[in-house]
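Internal ticket #5521
Category: modeling
Description: The requester needs a full-assembly model to guide mutagenesis choices. All entity lines are attached below as received. Residue total reported by intake: 446.
Assigned to: D.W.
Attached entities:
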Amino acid sequence: MASDQTRTSILAAAERLYADRGFGDVTLRDIVAEANVNLAAVNYHFGSKDELIAELFVTRSIATNRERLHELKTAEEQGGGRAPIDVILRALVGPTLRGCLGPQNQRSTAARFMIRASIESVPPIRRIKNREIDHLRKFIGAMRRSLPDRSDVEIYWGLNFALAMAHHTIRESERLTKLSEGKCDLDDVEDVVARVVSVATMALTAGKIEAKTPARALARDAR
Amino acid sequence: MASDQTRTSILAAAERLYADRGFGDVTLRDIVAEANVNLAAVNYHFGSKDELIAELFVTRSIATNRERLHELKTAEEQGGGRAPIDVILRALVGPTLRGCLGPQNQRSTAARFMIRASIESVPPIRRIKNREIDHLRKFIGAMRRSLPDRSDVEIYWGLNFALAMAHHTIRESERLTKLSEGKCDLDDVEDVVARVVSVATMALTAGKIEAKTPARALARDAR
DNA sequence: GTCTATAGAATGATAGAC
DNA sequence: GTCTATCATTCTATAGAC
């Protein structure tokens, strides 16, 4: 179909332009010029500029969320319905980090688009992210099963901090590279994943360990 | 001067409208209507819409950064040039969190504007944030003095994660409240500060303790 | 059903009178 | 320093060709 061709051209051109220049700088006219289609085609196929952006973002989000849930499910099955907390956290932040970081020149258009989306956060994208809560609840459930002694509040804060570290590192990767004069290697994705998972795991378990071994913990803290 | 009156009215009206409705939804015409001034006055006093936003953001940023540095300086003076790491981290994230969180109905226009700025991150604001590196280097210096045994890489990652947790919690405070069904109390600002500082401190010191007491750490990890 | 051409409404910016 | 009038650009919507 010619329809599908036009639609696909628009999506590809839009993703490329948004990835390179950001949402604020790219007009519909830029997109249709790049895609060699008519201006009205965008409205015909997507309804509006915002819905075009939403479609791009939803497509990529679904892929990432599917990966996350697959990793989570696999881990829980292997553990008989209960996965280690660090494996759960890895399933939560790994796909996103792997999708967005890595050597600059190897980054796909999709990856650069998702980085842009996490930096600029325009209204249509914010609306979609707000519907992500049900997805996160699945991780909350797994974390509860993994750490039955932890209170819900601690679980929620742990998840919040894990996502915080992952997303902020993506958002501010350029600034961290500049600040550290390249000493923080953001191309080494697995190292970044390990750091985020390690800190989030500590946040979720540290108090518990100390509570279980108060004397040793006190002794350790004293020196 | 009538000039100053007009200028001030525009700033106040713009901050209020942006805080309430976001950068994308507020036009210059909305602002001049709210401020009871002429449309051309914005351009005359600020040059462009972006420069108006920049002026608003810079004013608030400078105030926060001043607070941060004051807390940092005080802490280092009290410690004879070397402050405890948790006090340094508190100086880093405390002012921002205190400025943006707290009971919704008590939040000042300035606070709501800064939350909006951290959520939407429009181009003029991003440009200003990119110049914040020198400010952060002062904290890097203090952290190095506080933890002379830690490598630079660890220090940079620790600062990155501390900022990540603070900013993400502000950005996504609504989502965290909804996800946790109110169990995470974001109105209790000092509790939030304590949580962020605690996790960041662990991230910066945990490995060190284990390295110093490998046998005990291994034993603890095994059970 | 698919696409083009074109009109309409809204916005940021500016020139020039006062 | 202030204001009116106006411009260029943008997104959106629709009438009608294929």
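Resolution: model delivered.
Comment from assignee: The two ends of chain A are 72 Å apart (CA to CA).
Ticket closed.
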